[in-house]
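PT: before anyone asks, these are the final sequences, not the draft ones from last week. 970 residues across everything. Please model them as a single complex and drop the result in this thread when it's through.
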Amino acid sequence: MADTTASTSTAPSADSVLAPSPGALMRRRMFGHYGFMFGTAALLAILLIALFAPLIAPHDPLGQDLARKLIPPIWHDDPKATWVYPLGTDMFGRDYLSRLIYGARISLLIGFAAMVISGVIGTALGVAAGYFGGRVDMVVNFIITTRLSMPVVLVALAVVSLIGNSLWVVIWVLGLLIWDRFAVVMRSSTQQVRGLDYVAAAQALGCSTTRVVLSEIMPNIVNNLIVVATVEMAHAIILEAALSFLGLGVQPPEPSWGLMISEGKGLMFFEPWLIGIPGTALFVLILSINLLGDGIRDVTAPENRN
Amino acid sequence: MAQGDTILEVKNLTVDIPVPGGMLHAVQGLNFSVSRGETLCIVGESGCGKSLTSLALMDLLPKKAIRKADRLTLEGEDLLSLLESRMADIRGNSMGMIFQEPMTSLNPAYTIGDQMEEILLRHRRVSRREARERAIYLLEKVGITAAASRLGQYPHQLSGGLRQRVMIAMMLMCGPKLIIADEPTTALDVTIQAQILLLLAELQKEFEMGLILITHDLGVVARVADRVVVMYAGEIVEEGAATHVFERPTHPYTQGLLECIPVPGKTKRGAHLGSIPGIVPSLVGDLRGCHFAERCRYAMPECRQGHIALRAGLEDDHAYRCVLEPDVTMAHARERGVA
Amino acid sequence: MSDLVISAKDVTRTFMISAGAFRGKRPLHAVNGVNLDVARGDVLALVGESGCGKTTLAKMLLGLMAPTSGTIELAGKPVTSFERLELARLVQPIFQDPYSSLNPRKSIGSIITLPLKVQGDPNPETWRKRAEEIMELVGLPARLYNNFPSQLSGGQRQRVAIARALINRPQVVICDEPTSALDVSVQSQILNLLQDLRSELNLTYVIITHNLAVVEHIATRVAVMYLGRVVEEAETGPLFAKPRHPYTEALLQSVLTPDPSLGIPDTHLGAAYPNPVDPPSGCTFHPRCRYAMPHCSTVEPRYVTTDDGHVQCHLFDENEGRERA
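LR: through. Structure below.
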């Protein structure tokens, strides 16, 4: 009969009770990590603002009133500033606060959708290359190299100017261009996990390839996936802002933050808030996404912190 | 310094590490010394503190760890109060260290020659040519043929056994007085292990060095050690001359360890091996009594109180930490078939 | 005629390795013409040093890799003819590193019941109970069912790996260094457990290990591998008492028993382990052999059957009319 006296106590050496489960450990780390908490809070706030835009925005973001144009924001020492338009108005008399709020929707939508599209493409390619190796790896590497040799912004500009620039064209163009980091990171993560014994054990149990990849490998690389996803979401948001700034992204009168910066650049020295406000908003959004990404990385794999 | 002189003296070495939940007393009050030409083996299982001890000697503990000792001297020089710059001078110079994984201890981005020469150049005023000559000399000493051509090779081009030989040669570049080897042969094949151990023994004799060998392998310890220190849960539970400890194991833990290993010719084939049920206790917070009491079949109420001190065994140069009288534990040893 | 659970004939596995940036690929014969028979109830120890091919051979026995040539038969059928799931019911592995053989994201219960899930076992409501049964058999408290590998000690994790391998009652278990990563006091527990399970569940083991003391203790037969070949195979007792092949002799001499009166043995092995991509000519062991004769470097030794096994060495080839000095 097996030696059951072996585990009279189940605790690993340093604790007198069982060590916390991985979930509990992660929760503890999460709440102690300032960057993570701040990033999550800020992103959540922006998300809620974007979701409830119709309820929060005081005015119609597209509503023009040339009599009210170029009113400065409330903190300016100017008789025209008023709480009716706390962030002032632009050159067409549109309320900046409302445009900012609705602009959040566009940034988040594009960022998220492009991230999902590129995530699916990149992960599929990367995991396939990492798992199967050999020829599959060679082919995927070739595809990645081809993609890396393309300058993203120029290609995006070219495609958009050829096809036309609706919101969804922008999303798809970005999604089809920024998957490379997903592919590279998922490939190396898969390679690392692929060689571990529990994968061989699953194969020896007769698990199908699908099950091995989805059930044994994916859960262990999903942390890296999330980190890359946050980076690429931020990337997509900035790219959209750049495209819109250049006139080839979202079209006026939609309130994309990039477009707002573009529209305001001519009046930059006299009415600096026209670019300062959307610029700051972009900054805060990107910063919180990055902090969230760093936080997730630190919380799930603290040994990789540098 | 003549053969037999004390190189390293350690008195009351403790290592504490703050953890969530209190203070982890990883090493508690260690006393030992090493002389020229002597091999001291520190043996124990994972979690006993042996590796932390070696790091404590070299002052390479993790930042959070707190090292204290009444005395820690190398050739009479007090190591406790040294500045890091002086300690860095000593490391690699008078005190050499060999680690378990030669692949991770050798920098894969530099050639063997570069790494070996750098050690000497760092500590001595010699020309690069002299450093190179010494490197070739030592590579040949450790049994590596075509030494000059090896200097241009990178670590990944060598096998595990060769890399470990290179590590040994590297460590000898400055002629240290004391070598600390932490599991130097665990990652190597059996036949290479024997060769490396023979090599270390020869070099030790030739260069009159002290050797501290840290391992969990009792077979290695028995064959190589002059003196043995058995560690358990941060303390020395038995120490003495190797023949004494192996032929008359007095502490129940040592007896248990010896019962666990199959010995061809001695252990009955196919029978159950001895085992030590349970696990190492938590070393956090206030510690009382014998750490081994939970797992000891001879434990009594008095084992869990106060502090159990080391006491003399049946002979000179043999001490153990137990409340039981030596003749009592020796009777146990005979019952268990390990003495 | 004993019931042969495993029968390997002339098994070879070759990898193409690139020998340098601009040179072409060269063949590496990781396993080079291996013949091996394992009878039901045997404990066969595969011993050899790194690069000898034992891990590659184990993978082929598990059906994870196909031989380049030769056949492996399990319970009379060629490995390659088995359905994946059928093979999994017949032979299972236990790996060396308890820290990488369990998926850190899965609970113990889900790891142990995975074989049932994969096989499509029809009664999911019974899975937990079956898992708890096997956990008891291997000495794991049932309450660990919902815990995760990171909360368990090395010995406990190895028990989980054993439970996973045995829950579907395979016939053969391939153990790759099952105790090397564990502490001494835990090793003996796991070895005792493996022995008990063998008699309780009527298992056949193939154990890959470098620890010859353990081999002598629990193996019934030993196969010594060197550079892809089995150079000697015999029953344990006779092999340890009177090793034939010089490499076996050197290996046995390297075993360090805890006897302080003995020193460190000199195995007289001389030169370093050769590069498997570029093996020595003739008998691949000849550069390191203390008994090497002139023709050892030119002629490959034949497979010579002995009373209880076989050996590949010119010293034992009667046709050459020589005896060991």
